Amino acid sequence: MPDDVSRLVREAAARLDRAGIDTPRVDAELLLAHAAGVPRERVVSAAVMGRPVSSLLPARTARTVHAVLDELARLLDARAERVPLQHLVGTAPFRHLDLVVGPGVFVPRPETEQVAQVAIDEALGVARGSEGPVVVDLCTGSGAIALAVATEVPGARVHAVELDRDAHVWAERNVTRTREASGVVVHLVRGDARTALAELDGSCDVVVSNPPYVPPDAVPRDPEVALHDPQVALYGLGEDGLEVPRGVTRAAARLLAPGGLYVMEHAEVQARSARDMVAAVGGFEDIRTASDLTGRPRMVVARRARPASEPDPAPGDPSDMED
Fold first, then answer.
1. At 20, phi and psi to the nearest 5?
2. With 0-12 CB in 10 A as exposed, 13-18 as middle and 19+ as buried, what is 308?
3. Is the pLDDT of residue 2 over 70?
4. What CATH code is assigned to 93-322?
5. 136 forms bridges with which residues in the sheet?
6. What does the DSSP 8-state code read for residue 224?
7. 139: left (phi over 0), alpha (psi -120 to 50) or beta
C-alpha cells in the first residue's frame, strides 16, 4: 500500500467502488481514520495537503505506519465483502449521538431520525407543562430513538423495551454510555413490546416504534442488510409484514393517555396498510401518514382518542403529515 494519504484513500475508494459500495470515498476515509485512531477530518486534511500516513499518528503512540496499513487492509477486505461499515468502526451516527453497534443489532438508519423528530416535537410540547413527558420506545434495538428523545427533551421520562437478547445487550451499552457521559437516564427493560410496562398503562404521552415490518417475500437488496442485520429486526411476520406492528400498535393503545401520540415507522409501500392497521386496532383518531426527509411516506402517526366529553386539542401536528 502507498504511504501517501491521498493516494491511499484514492486506491481504497476505487476498490470499494468496484465492490459496489455506494459511498466508497467516505467509507475509505472512515476506515483509514479508524485504523489510525483519528477523526475522519484529519484524514481528509492530510489527503488535501498531500501528507504521509505517518502524519496521522500522534507523537506519543505505540501505533506504527505498518500497523495502520495492515489494519486498513483487513478493514477493506471486510468492507469489500459488504460487512457493514458501522460494524467495522463500531459506531453508528444517529442525530447527535454516536451509538455503539455490531453483530446482533439493527444499525440505525438516517430515515429513522425523522421518526424520532416527530416524537421529540410532541414530547417538547408536552414538556412545557409542569411535569416532563412520559415517552416509550417499543422495539428499541440499539436504543437510538429512546436516547435521542431523552437527550433532546429536558425532563423527559423515557422507557425503552427490547425483547431480543443480543439487541438488548447493545441497547444497554448505549444507555450506560449516555448516562455516564451526560447523566441522561433511559429506563431500559428486556421484554415483549406487546405486554411490557403494564404499570404505565394509560399514562404515556408518546409511544414511538421502529418495529420489524419487512414482508417475508421482500428480501432487502443491500447485502449489508440482508446478510448482517438480524432477521428478527427486519421481518414483521404475516403475509404483509405487519403482524409485529399490530402487536406494537395494540400496546400503544394500551399505554397512551387520551390525546397521546403514536408514531411508527413502516416501509413506503405500507402507508395505506399501516393506516388501516391502526384504525382496525381501534381507539385512535387523526390517523395520518408522515414523510421522511426525502418525502417518502415512512411513518404512521395517530392520536389516542379522547373521551367524547374532552375538548379537541389546539393544532400542533407535524407540518409534513399527509393524508
1. 90, 15
2. exposed
3. no
4. 3.40.50.150
5. 159, 207
6. I
7. left
Q: 86 — phi, psi (to 5°)? A: -65, -35
**Domain boundaries of the chain, sorted by first residue:** 5-81, 93-322
| pLDDT at 323 (0 to 100) | 43
Question: How much of the chain, in percent, has pLDDT values that exceed 70?
Answer: 86
pLDDT at 319: 44
pTM of the predicted model over 0.85: yes
Residues 6+ apart with CB under 8 A from 5: 32, 43, 46, 47, 50, 51, 52, 53, 55, 56
Q: What is the DSSP string of 131-144?
A: SPPEEEEES-TTTH
Between helices 271-281 and 243-255, what is the axis angle to 10°?
50
The answer as to CATH 1.10.8 being correct for domain 5-81 is: yes
Beta-strand ranges (E) seen in the chain are 91-94, 97-100, 134-138, 157-162, 186-190, 204-209, 256-265, 284-291, 297-304, 321-322
Q: Which amino acid is at 2?
A: P
User: What per-residue string of b and e applies to 107-128 under the rule 16 or more CB within 10 Å gives b?
Assistant: bbeebbbbbbbbbbbbbebbbe
**Which cell is 61 given?**
503512540
In whole angstroms, give the CA distance from residue 241 to residue 266: 10
What confidence score (pLDDT) does residue 95 get? 96
Cell of 321: 403529515
* 36-83 pLDDT, tens digit each: 999 999 999 999 998 999 999 876 666 789 999 999 999 999 999 999
Taking the C-alpha atoms of residue 163 and residue 154, their distance in angstroms, rounded to an integer, is 27
Pairing of strands 157-162, 91-94: unpaired
Q: Which residue in the block uniquely carries the three cell numbers 420489524?
A: 212
pLDDT at site 213: 84
Write out pLDDT tens, residues 194-244. Answer: 999 999 999 999 999 999 988 776 666 667 666 666 666 655 667 778 899
Give the residue-averaged pLDDT of 180-193: 96
Q: What are the cell numbers at 26? A: 467516505
